[in-house]
Every structure is written in structure tokens, then in C-alpha cells.
């Protein structure tokens, strides 16, 4: 397993896992507490995340929750680029990820100060994003999914969920390598084109992804695989999230993508620093 990755010309040590904190520039993300609706709000939330120990801020303008509405490219650009510019200017030391599947958004985000791209589609929705990542030579978060946010929950038929996700990653890594993209982080895509049972089957096999030789990112914070399992709401699911974050770190996860920075940092501190 690789215990470091190059981000913005710096070698980031992953021996101690990192926390990627969410800033959603959207009005319809599934967890209301992650939404920001202005630059001042975004800067306030960013400062809070940084104060609580965030290593990376993940900024997105297109809700990828199942059944989310379509967002035009111009609207996505309007939502995220000014926020990325402002966050980068105000907090120049924090690493910024742009959560997008569009090549133009990725290009403008990287030009505005973002350091890596978090693509839920693996280049399937807009293949031009892969050339953008190659041109900028930035890290790329490769997530497994099928279809689009509008269609993915109807695409949950697998002969073997683990084998198909591993095959997907292997094939995509080959494509990325040919494009000169070597700094890749893998995200199994919990909640994306997967049933509750399939999410947990993948989650329980987290350690088995190690052989792919890339850092693993886990994005399960307050998701339905938690709150549906314990019959609560996203707002009530922090405790369940912390339990699964603990198991994820013990299974080898190197990055946690989270809504609640302080609690995630405490998980890592208790497991890795004692």
C-alpha cells in the first residue's frame, strides 16, 4: 500500500490518515448541515473545518445524491469557482479538492486554486476530465459508480459486487496510467449504484482493496447505509458514522470524506496516534 501521495508539489504522508471535509455549494445535498449558500458562509465553514483539523476541503456544486436534479455546467461553475478562489486566497495552506465530473469545471477549478479532482463518474460522464487531470498533473480521486445521479439507483445488478468494482478499478487505472495520471486515490463509491446490502459487502471487504496499490478514500459520512440501517435521520447519524469510520481506518482507509471534521480526527488520533 502506498503511504503517500503527491499533491500540489508536496508529498503528503498518509501513514496517518487524512480528513477531507465537505463544503457543498448546493441547495439540495442530502445533509442540510453541509450546505453553503454564499462566499461568506463558505469561508466561515472552511475556517471551522480547518480549525477542527481538516487536511483537505472538498468543494462541489452538483449534488450527487440519488435522484438529484440536473445542474447545468454554467450553474455549477457559478456555484464553485468563486468559492474555490476565495477559500484558496483566504486559507492558502489548505488543500482543495473540486468534486465534479465535468472537464470544464475541473479545469477552471484547478486554475482557481484547487489541487485535486474528485470525480464520481470515473470519466464516464465527461471523458474530457481525464485529459484535464493529465494536463494539470494533479491527483485524481477515482470513484466507482454507474450511470448518473438521476439513474444510478436503478443500476444495482452485479454478479459479484466486489469483483466488478475491482475489475472497474483495474481497467480505469490502466487508462489513467496511459494518460500519465499516476497519483490516484480509489473510492469504492458507497451509496452509488449499490443497495444497502451491497454497500456493506464492499465495506466489510475494505482491506481486500489494498492489493491495488493505491490509497483508499471512504465516503460514508451520514449516508443512508448508516441511517437506514439504524432507523434514524442523517441529522441523527453521527454516532453511526463514527463507528464505521473507526472500522474503515482499521481496514486501511487513508482518507475519510466527512461532514464532521472534529469527530473524524478524533477517530484517527485514537487509532493511529496511541
Number of strands: 10
Strand order of the largest sheet: 8-7-6-5-4-3-10-9
The helix/strand class is alpha/beta
| Apparent shape | globular
Poorly predicted parts: none
- Under the CATH scheme, the architecture is Alpha-Beta Barrel
Whole-number count of domains: 1
The Cα radius of gyration reads 17 Å
The CATH superfamily bears the name: Dihydropteroate synthase-like
Distance between the termini: 21 Å
Mean pLDDT: 92
H/I helix tally? 9
CATH class categorisation: Alpha Beta
CATH topology assignment: TIM Barrel
Question: Which keywords apply here?
Answer:
alpha/beta, single chain, 8-stranded parallel sheet
Describe the protein's architecture and organization.
- The chain is about 40% helix and about 15% strand.
- The protein is built from 9 helices and 10 strands.
- It is globular, with a radius of gyration of 17 Å.
- It has about 270 residues and is an alpha/beta fold.
- Strands 8-7-6-5-4-3-10-9 form an 8-stranded parallel sheet. A two-stranded antiparallel sheet has the order 1-2.
- It has one domain: Alpha-Beta Barrel (TIM Barrel).
In short:
The chain is an alpha/beta fold.
Topology:
Layout: E1 4-7, E2 10-13, E3 18-24, H1 39-51, E4 56-60, H2 73-90, E5 95-99, H3 103-112, E6 116-119, H4 128-136, E7 140-143, H5 161-178, E8 184-187, H6 196-203, E9 217-218, H7 224-227, H8 238-250, E10 255-258, H9 261-272
Parallel strand pairs: 3-4, 3-10, 4-5, 5-6, 6-7, 7-8, 9-10
Antiparallel strand pairs: 1-2
Amino acid at each position: 500500500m502506498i503511504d503517500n501521495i503527491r499533491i500540489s508539489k508536496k508529498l503528503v504522508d498518509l501513514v496517518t490518515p487524512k480528513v477531507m471535509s465537505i463544503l457543498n455549494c448546493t441547495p439540495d445535498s442530502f445533509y442540510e448541515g453541509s450546505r453553503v449558500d454564499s462566499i461568506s458562509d463558505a469561508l466561515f465553514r472552511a475556517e471551522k473545518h480547518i480549525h477542527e483539523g481538516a487536511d483537505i476541503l472538498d468543494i462541489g456544486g452538483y449534488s450527487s445524491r440519488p435522484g438529484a436534479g440536473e445542474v447545468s455546467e454554467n450553474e455549477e461553475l457559478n456555484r464553485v469557482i468563486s468559492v474555490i478562489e476565495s477559500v484558496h486566497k483566504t486559507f492558502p495552506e489548505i488543500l482543495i479538492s473540486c468534486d465534479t465530473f465535468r472537464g470544464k469545471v475541473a479545469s477552471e477549478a484547478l486554475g482557481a486554486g484547487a489541487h485535486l479532482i474528485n470525480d464520481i463518474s470515473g470519466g464516464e460522464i465527461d471523458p474530457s476530465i481525464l485529459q484535464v487531470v493529465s494536463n494539470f498533473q494533479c491527483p485524481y480521486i477515482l470513484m466507482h459508480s454507474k450511470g448518473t445521479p438521476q439513474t444510478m439507483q436503478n443500476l444495482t445488478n452485479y454478479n459479484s459486487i466486489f469483483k466488478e468494482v475491482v475489475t472497474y478499478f483495474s481497467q480505469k487505472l490502466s487508462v489513467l496510467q496511459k494518460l500519465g495520471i499516476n497519483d490516484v486515490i480509489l473510492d469504492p463509491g458507497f451509496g452509488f449504484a449499490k443497495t444497502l446490502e451491497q454497500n456493506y459487502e464492499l465495506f466489510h471487504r475494505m482491506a481486500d482493496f489494498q492489493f491495488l496499490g493505491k490509497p483508499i478514500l471512504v465516503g460514508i459520512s451520514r449516508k443512508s447505509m448508516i441511517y437506514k440501517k439504524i432507523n434514524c435521520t442523517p441529522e441523527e447519524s453521527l454516532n453511526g458514522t463514527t463507528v464505521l469510520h473507526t472500522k474503515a481506518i482499521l481496514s486501511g482507509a487513508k482518507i475519510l470524506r466527512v461532514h464532521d471534521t472534529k469527530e473524524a480526527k478524533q477517530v484517527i488520533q485514537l487509532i493511529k496516534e496511541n
